[in-house]
Design a protein that fits this description.
α1 packs across α2. The protein contains 8 helices and no strands. The two termini are about 35 Å apart. By secondary structure, the chain is mainly alpha-helical.
Length: about 260
């Protein structure tokens, strides 16, 4: 019977599929680290209070990238090239979601609207990351090799999501509510489409590596399409709602260090 746990266990047990999984994850986290570092450097004067939190956000993402690379190293594996069709973060940027890399490579300060765009984009993508890590934590929190990494990354993603909620609510109170809701909706609808496409591409790659029969691959693809239909109809709304989080000032301190995996 297909289940999230059995599916990931297959990927975990095979060196080639595990290296691809970790390489994709490490690449996305490292890209997020760079983006946050550049945003922190370019924060407008009126929002300088956010700079340390954005820096912490980026440091967490860099740490996650190092963790995935360490998981590969522990098994004697090397990172593999990330197929373009599986590169979630770059596909989001390519489709105009979040802040353009050309802008982040420059030296001109960002605007408050840019900060709204950054936080809205993060609120949507961190929702996805938080949910995915909760799923891994449910099944692998006690795994001898993955457990510590999964628990730490999951906690960080929950912190990132809480931070986005709190800061977007602050900006909404400052008069940016309409822009926030519009940007959130645009980001969410684009993200669910890109997530579907990336999921299909990743599962196709995994299927070829693991030799899945055609029926199994077709079932998984149908499941991905079904999730997209639900998200397109109603599920996207969970990505745009805002409420004050229980974790207040979640990124107010320094980033924690990566666990020792060796």
């Amino acid at each position: 019977m297909l289940s999230a746990k059995s599916l990931f266990q297959e990927i975990l047990d095979n060196d080639e599929s595990f290296a691809l999984f970790c390489s994709i994850a490490a690449s996305g986290e490292s890209q997020g680290g760079w983006e946050n570092a550049r945003i922190a450097a370019l924060v407008p004067e009126s929002e300088r209070v956010l700079a340390p939190k954005i820096t912490r956000h980026g440091a967490d993402e860099d740490k996650h990238g190092r963790i995935f690379n360490a998981l590969m190293k522990k098994r004697g594996l090397e990172p593999v090239p990330v197929p373009p069709e599986t590169d979630y973060t770059m596909l989001l940027e390519k489709h105009g979601i979040g802040l353009a890399h050309e802008k982040l490579k420059g030296e001109e300060p960002l605007t408050v609207q840019d900060i709204v765009t950054y936080l809205a984009h993060s609120r949507v993508t961190e929702q996805r990351a938080s949910e995915e890590m909760k799923l891994l934590r449910k099944h692998f929190a006690d795994h001898p090799d993955l457990g510590r990494a999964v628990r730490m990354i999951s906690n960080d993603e929950d912190n990132h999501l809480a931070y986005c909620h709190e800061e977007l609510l602050r900006l909404a109170r400052a008069g940016h509510g309409r822009a926030i809701q519009q940007t959130l909706r645009e980001c969410a609808l684009a993200e669910i489409r890109i997530y579907r496409d990336v999921s299909l591409a990743v599962m196709a790659r995994m299927g070829r590596i693991l030799g899945w029969p055609r029926a199994k691959s077709a079932t998984l693809a149908a499941g991905i399409h079904a999730v997209y239909v639900w998200e397109r109809a109603a599920g996207w709304r969970r990505m745009v709602s805002l409420k004050m989080p229980e974790r207040r000032d979640a990124l107010g301190g320094p980033a924690s260090s990566a666990p020792e995996l060796a």
